[in-house]
User: Fold this.
Amino acid sequence: MNNNKLHIKQPGFKTPKNYFEKLESQIMEEVSLKSKLSKENPFKVPENYFDELEHRVLNQTSDNKKQPKVVSIYRNKMFRYVAGIAALLLVFFSIFKLQQTVSSETNTITQIESYIENGFLDLSYLDYEALLTDEMLEDTSFISNLEQEELFEYLSYEIDEIHLTTD
Amino acid sequence: MSQEDTLIKKLLSEKEKDVAFKELLHLYKERLYWHIRKMVLNHDDADDVLQNTFIKVYQNIQNFKGESKIYSWMYRIATNEAITFLKAKAKRNNNSLEKEKDLAIKNLETDVYFEGDEIQLKLQKAIATLPEKQQLVFNMKYFDETTYEELSEILETSVGALKSSYHIAVKKITAYLTEN
Assistant:
């Protein structure tokens, strides 16, 4: 009997080239390795490790989510320091911002004054009059502050120029 | 519906997620631990990586698409976590990955949680000489007897490439043990 063929009929299956030669050496290498080594696991774990592990993992996932530990931030020492620093920074920036605002307002007034002084704003006394309200016109308190002599002196100089109406 | 499908359905439901996760943890904690332990060697490191793995599983379960088995997905997370951990540890200690691995093997000699004899210690040294992927294939095939189909799903590599990788690993380890 031909041992190479046995009784097996080839139903069209093929093997990769040199498969049986490679297979033999691969099996021999593995058998040799296994004969040298036991497959016993040399690594150990502490006692009850796997039971404790479950608790530790669950504490970090579901349990914590359900019962979150509430710690008041006001009792936290670090919070007090941070709050103190934040308050100081707030005060500092508020003052800085205020100074900036005042400074910009002063700049605007100075610019307007300079604009008027340089004669770019051509307004007659009638234009000024139009800006005054009735209340402002009725307020004559500023006159009482003037000395009568000063008033007469002013009127004697300006009477020709200012148009006075008498109803 | 299979048992795994039921578990996945529960994991994806807000109401039953925690109960299902507890079941998942109970089922896979040991398998994943030993997978990680063979990569990082030290118990404390394995513990850190395992906890991070399960926390990631919990946080990312909604991203599990069901295209592979749940344990394959968890194995992939565990493998990535272990590799990231080893790289970060090497960087922290200003060492190359190879140097860090050598140190980890040297530490096994005095590790109370390693009870291997001289030949088992030598086997660990031989495994450490392999490239990362061959180490994974060898550990999972030789010790855990994972099938090539499962390995293919976990490592996202073809069965043919895995077989070739495993045989190269066996050859290298045999040669190392013979020489040493």
In short: The CA atoms of residues 4 and 70 of chain B lie 8 Å apart. Chain B has a mean pLDDT of 92. The two ends of chain B are 53 Å apart (CA to CA).
